[in-house]
Design brief:
By secondary structure, the protein is mostly helical. The chain contains eight helices and three strands; from the N terminus they run H-H-H-H-H-H-E-E-E-H-H.
Length: 230
Amino acid sequence: MRTMISVFVVITLCLTLLVGCNNQQNEVDELQRQIEELQNQNSQTPTPMSAPEPTVKPTEEPADEAFDKYDKMWDDIYAAGVGHEWSASDSWSKDQQEAYDTINAQAILEGTQGIVDYVWANYQGYYESYSNVTVDQVKADKRFKVWAAMPLWGFGTFDADAGTYTGSPSETVWTLTGDSFPTVEDFYNEIILAHEGDIIAADGETANEPFSAVAKDRFIRQAEDSEPIP
């Protein structure tokens, strides 16, 4: 009986060892297969990547250079003097000269309206003493608004005895009856006369942004739009 048990134990151990050896061999074979596969992959010549074609951008003058060009042009036209008549020797075109004059005039006119609005918003309490007009009169008839603003800004005087208003420096007289009232355009003319048409000299009159700053900005923008730089 003992002999049979011993034989059985021996047989069991042999089978166990045989199975273990087979499993180990299988593992070795699998590892060898993976190594060979990796070697095969590494031995293949990789396909070189083609370099991307460079993007060709059109030659273009930077925006700041365009700004500098027309900023200087405005300065050059200004330096030529008030009333300058364009000639072929100028470094700007006739159209640019005309645009400069038109834009400057518009900027001063709009700025003059800004003065009228500023006085209305901030100095109503001085209307009667400077212009002999009440706030209620201005509310009832907007024509009094310009009349009230001009003397407060130093561009005319009211003659209480005559009931008239005299612009300065033009010495234009308004009777303040019918259609004889100063307008924004009249106020603008007084500013132009006072500063002999010099927009930068007139900057001191503005109630908001300087006339020349507004005009130059518009000139540059319009020049860039109408004459794009290649």
